[in-house]
Amino acid sequence: MTALALAVTGILATPVTRAQSPGGVATLARQPAVRAALDTARTSEPQTIADQIRFCEVPAPPFKEADRAGLLRAEFSRLGLLNVRQDRAGNVLGDRRGEGSRPRLVIAAHLDTVFPEGTDVRVARQGNVLRGPGIGDNCRGLAVLVAIVRVMQQTGVQTTGPVTFVANVGEEGLGDLRGMKALFGETLKDQIERFVSIDNAGIHVSATGTGSHRYRVTFRGPGGHSFAQFGMANPADALGRAIAKIADWQIASTPRTTFNVGRIGGGTSVNSIPTEAWMEVDLRSSDAGALTALDVKLQQAVEAAAAEENARWGTPRMISVTRELVGDRPAGALPMDAPILTTAQAVARTLGVPAAVSESSSDANLPISLRIPAISIGGGGRSFDSHTPSETFDTTDSWKGTQYGLLLTLALAEP
């Protein structure tokens, strides 16, 4: 419990004392300075939406986030954040001082999208609907991140603890949380006390990190002419056998556990037996034991597929299989009474917005696994068809998400 002096241009609020509690959040929200900041978040939502479009029209394919990172770095500097820099992973960071040195809060949103280089990232707008690859995931998160900075700077609201704003790399696809691993393992190692990731749309809070194992599985053989060497074991056929086995898995609904063959490839030509065929597989669960069990099933499936293809043509050990772990996202969960979660719920109640508690796979997985209080939230509005070229975002009442992120930042930057 501590005093939080809140000031806004033309308004001076007397210091208040509050704890991380529902009553404390409501008290905070009644302060004139905070009310003014929340009003500014609402009235400046057109700027937030314009930023969302602007950020989205700068490509950020996996491992090539540099152009969008440069845009966010310039934005952080323009808004007056301190010590604006990039770390070795490519994360963009900017600091805002608090009246004290604790708690150190980090608010982050990821830069990268799932879409490959060359994707048309222009955004079309029709009324309240925006359409473009990544417009919700995660251009919305980036726009709200910047909006929080802009409103706090414009209104002069002060916090007790410092806040570091981060636009990070490596959340999507095979990024393997490399941005978070650098942030927590090197850039701000042992400095972060609370962490919030703004990811995609809606108003929700996730304190359960869905873990994942991602594999690139490759079947190899000698290959040959499709006619002259017919009868030779075929890596593509072995791949097909493996995919069929995976597709037939029966998985319990609790804990929620999923699998997906996301990409396949290989071969030289239609009239050649390929020398290799590969697939990328995503396994997920919020339960570490269930994820391990699913991993074992994958290893068994691919070994059996290779053996069956060899047996089909009587060619022992001609087809081989390798598995490369290309993504390992830890699973974990906060207790339902964790202070960061109850504060997030109190913020929602104070603003009169529903905020369902869910589980997700996000940048928050990493700090949760390190036992650092961390959650992932949505940025407001509504998003549809994420991870597809036809992704859309409905801006109706999206300002509520901006207000939510703002008030949560103010609440968590307090001991």
Describe what you observe in this structure.
The structure is a single chain. The chain has eleven helices and 23 strands. It folds into two domains: 2-209 and 332-412, 3-Layer(aba) Sandwich (Aminopeptidase); 211-329, Alpha-Beta Plaits, CATH 3.30.70.360. The strands form six sheets. Strands 5, 6, 7, 10, 11, 12, 19, 20 and 21 form a nine-stranded mixed beta sheet that branches. Strands 8-9-23-22 form a four-stranded antiparallel beta sheet, with no helix packed on it. The protein has 415 residues and is of the alpha+beta class. The protein has helices at 22-30, 32-43, 45-56, 66-78, 139-155, 178-187, 235-247, 288-313, 339-351, 365-369, 399-412; strands at 2-4, 7-8, 11-12, 16-18, 82-86, 92-96, 105-110, 124-126, 129-131, 163-168, 194-198, 204-209, 211-220, 224-225, 257-266, 272-273, 276-285, 320-329, 332-333, 356-360, 374-377, 382-384, 392-394. The longest helix has 26 residues, at 288-313. It is elongated and about 80 Å long.
